[in-house]
Amino acid sequence: MFKEYVEEYILKNGRRTALFFILLAAVFFIDKLVLGPLAAVVLHDVFETDFPRFKAMGELLLRHGPYFWYPNWPGGIPAYACQHGPLYILNIVSQFLPLWAVYAGLLIAMMSAAGYGMYRFLSGYLNAAGWVAVVGGVYFALNMQLWSPFILYIFSYAFPLYFALSWPGGCGSQKGLIMRLIVLNLIVALSYPVLTLPYFFILEVLVIVLLPPEGQNAGLRRLIKTSLVWFGYILVCMPVLYALYKYIPFTSRTYVYETASLAGFLKSLANGFTVSSLQTMTLIPIVGAIAISNTSGRVRRSLGVLCVVVFLYAVFTSGLKVIFRGTLFEKMDLAHITTVFPIVMTMAAFVAIDEAIKDRRLVRRFLIGGIIGVACAVFAVFIAKTLETQGIQLLILNISSGIFISLMILTATGEEAFLFPKLARNPVAIFIVSCAAIEAVLYFSPRKAAPVDLVSIAPVLVVLMCALFWSINKLSGAFQKQGQLTAMLIMAIGVIIFFQVRFTRFFGEECVPYISIFPNIDVLEAIKQENSYKPLRVASLNPGTIPLIQSQGFETPDGRGPLFNKSYREFFKVVINQQLSDPGFLPYFESYWYNLFISNFTANITFSPYAFLNTRYIVTQGVSSKPLNSSLELVYDGNSIGKHPGLIGNLMRLYSRPIAILRFKDAFDRVYLVKTIITLESDKAVYDTLVNTEGAALFNTVYISGKDAPSSPPDGIDDEQFKKNQMALKGYSPDEISLKLELATPVAIVLSNNYAPNWRAYVDGRETRVFRANLAFQAIIIKDVGPHSVVFRYEDRAQKFTLILIPIGMLVFNYFIITGGRIFFTRP
């Protein structure tokens, strides 16, 4: 009966099937639709890094047009040396929608694409039964929520849909060609090339070679066509790929290698398989697939794809990765091949399920294999302790999914030997069991629910309870027939799994209310408006406030992300010098390159180096009980929510946190004049000097290491004469800073933006040398007195040329997608 209900209500037509997966995603994230900015979001690697940058990069694009230097990152960075460039689609969308709405829309779109894409992939390419493919789509949509809260793994979600729409045999007629191209180009536009190219081209080749459709061979022409499509993708992404490759020598990453050994390789192999199968709820059916693999070539081939991926993961994460030392592969973070695990594991599991349903002789062996899978899951969680957190929750999920799959197979094959106790025939009993299962997930949560958590999870629970009661009422008069009772049990278990996944995700990483990260603080908005055309930086004394500052469009001296300029990172050690005296902090700072911020407000922070950075304001989560440093002035001391009356006020207080804003009175301008140039023998000597210097000595002196030193710096300049020098900032944009000067003496001009070879300086239209000063920044020398115009300009002609490759790449990509149906879907 379960099969009949799926076919009647979901598979009646293609539009209804697509709508089902959209509704599934909307219900899963109903809290985002109901609560809006009050709903929880993922902070780690999402709202503390990428999403604030979307808004800031988009604002710069609208204000200045296309640009190639991104000044808002600590010290500045080439604009395309990120996961995306200024033209990224979400940068533009975030200018018209609040970030919480962009996040909610992306979540629902990606979960819908994951579910519908896996359905199309299983049914259209692998010839699975339609109703089995629907269940496989639901599973994949759910296990992606467990596996990767990082929603910007676009191809991890959308690869099955991409494959189904680009593979001629799974696309149907050409009537939907325009819609196909829109969806495929949208997937490409949203994707991060660094998280896509190394893994999903390989995955597509593996699927084509090892798992061709029944009755067809892979074919050299199909592989060539696939390669050409991906070549078009590479051209589209060339601006980012070029910028990242060129920026490699300037990044601060270090790599640690363990000793290569067979034991280490086997451990990575076992952990890769066990952890990923538990987190994708596929351990039990995959063990069942192994049990029937000797009788089914299709199952063997799907397991073959899985084995290749797990093998590559073990190579990239064990000591064997030493073979990539010093090569480009070292820089590619190939351990992220884990992003394809949910795809290959769902595929292998449901190919085996479909095979067992089509051949009743395999059911018993599959179910015995599933029982062994349960034992493996228990061993992994309780004995091997493979999962450090949420282990019991994932074990409950895997057992629930095992029961669900077993019932699905038994009903589809007509195995009525499964007898239900009389208690199970009572809808109330089913409701009680459902509540008990949900309570088990709550009880074993790694953290306890707070009132604000209940606000976020309540909409999901209400909707699911309504769905459960609806299904019970729908079938309440049909308990005489065993199949209908089984169908109701399957639906009830499905609802339980649905809530378990949602709750596990919420109490994993999606647990921070958006409004507590991005509050509306009028003082920050006023600072932004007051300094809209003046360069300044706003720092944070707590990492939790960095996303707020970045989302407001401020340049920051601190941050969290995958790439920092290595010279700037060395300078930042001057700022956190007191913390580096902690013997446990230095190894962490050197090895964990994602963080660059002051992590302890109570430490004796050296504020003088912040003067170099043009840091006008500092934001922190509350003011220390210690007296403020004399260079700091408190301009705001309140909370992140403000005052709201009545019930709304009581609700908003759940999200409140203290916020203080301090003005740094001693901050330098972004560009300032210096009379003394001191050359030291090395960067280490410059670092030691900066650590031990403060006050006027910092402002009047610029330090340059010997290898970058000027040949004849000016010296002996009179103080009184030097004070007569005048400088005015005439223009400031990401790629250009222009100045007007009236000089009475020779001077050095220091610009506290990161030094990079593509920065040029022009004095009265003639190019002059740019020196790397104070470890990380820029300086030029002007020896002639009198009036001058100075322009600092970021120039990278090759980077500009790569923009031309974007439309060319789109043409190549779409051409080979369109022509694929006429060339390759022809049976011999």
Helix and strand layout, with pairings?
Elements: H1 2-9, H2 14-28, H3 30-35, E1 40-42, H4 43-47, H5 50-64, E2 69-70, E3 77-78, H6 89-93, H7 99-125, H8 130-147, H9 154-166, H10 177-190, H11 197-210, H12 220-236, H13 238-247, H14 262-279, H15 283-292, H16 297-317, H17 341-358, H18 363-383, H19 391-412, H20 427-443, H21 451-475, H22 482-506, E4 510-513, H23 514-517, H24 522-530, E5 537-540, H25 546-551, E6 559-560, H26 566-575, H27 577-580, H28 585-591, E7 595-596, H29 608-612, E8 615-620, E9 632-639, H30 646-653, E10 658-664, E11 671-674, E12 676-680, H31 683-691, H32 696-700, E13 701-705, H33 719-722, E14 726-733, E15 736-743, E16 747-751, E17 759-763, E18 766-768, E19 771-773, E20 777-782, E21 786-794, H34 797-823
Parallel strand pairs: 5-8, 12-13
Antiparallel strand pairs: 1-4, 2-3, 6-7, 8-10, 9-10, 11-16, 14-15, 15-21, 16-20, 17-18, 17-21, 19-20
Helix pairs in contact: 2-7, 2-8, 7-8, 7-9, 8-17, 8-22, 9-10, 11-12, 11-16, 12-34, 13-34, 14-16, 15-17, 15-18, 16-17, 18-19, 19-22, 20-22, 21-22
